[in-house]
Amino acid sequence: QVQLMESGGGLVQAGGSLALACAASGSIISTVSMGWYRQAPGNQRELVAVKIGGGSAHYADSVKGRFAISRDNANNAVTLQMNNLKPEDTAVYYCNAVIRVPTSSVSSYWGQGTQVTVSS
Description:
7-stranded mixed beta sheet
C-alpha cells in the first residue's frame, strides 16, 4: 500500500509565491517519477511539472520560468515552488508518483489534492 501526503497550498495574491510538498510512504522499492498536476473547474487535469528519475524535469509551457520542481529521492518526496503566481494558476493541485512496489509492478498513485487560489 502506497500513500501520498500533500501539504501547502492556500490563498495568495497575484505575483505571490506558494510551495507545495508531497511525500510518498508505504511499500516502495523505487520511485520512477514524481510530479504535480492541476485541475481547474470545468477543465481536464493537466500536467504542471514532473521530475523523472534523478534527472530531467518537464514543465507545462504556462509555468516555465515561474515554477520549480525538486525531488528528494532518499525520502520519496517532491516539492513545487510556485513564484509570480497568476489568477489562471488557480486550481486543485495533485501530487502524482509512479512507483515500483515489492511485487515489481509499477503503478501510478495520486494525492488527495490541495487547493491553490490566486486572487487578482
